[in-house]
Amino acid sequence: MRGSELPELPETPGLPEYAERVLDVAERIPQGRVMTYGDVAEWLKDEARAEAEAASGAGGGAGGGSRSAGAGARQALSGGPRQVGRVLALYGGAVPWWRIVRADGVLLPGHELRAMDQYREEGTPLRPAPPAAEGHIPRLDLRRARWDGAVPESRERTEG
Fold first, then answer.
1. Which domains does the chain carry?
2. Which three-class secondary structure state does DSSP give residue 87?
3. Beta 35-36 vs 100-101: how paired, if at all?
4. pTM
């Protein structure tokens, strides 16, 4: 190794596929909207199911390995709300993590102030904090802020 040359570093393994998909969903959620951890888990299960069905339909019907490939995809992408939360805890710093929330609308403990800054900047609907709430931090108004995953029509027209 000469002067300014750096030693070669070993390649770091990529993210697990499930983590990549969770982070992708976080990036799709529009500003001012949220999904719960459970919403994201269901989204991913539905997406995996649709991909498996498409793969089995594309395989032609006569024997191929598409059925086992679909089962493998479902297994690799299975997870619930806790797994979604774990992915965000480990890898979510580079995506809008504040858009994936608890089902009760309570802000993530320890991250309330950072999340609140983002919610205010994005215009995310909030409910006033109950008088007994510690620190009087508002909750998310999930009835108004929850995103169902649908792409707005105007965006579909520009992307398609």
1. 17-146 (1.10.10.10)
2. helix
3. parallel
4. 0.74
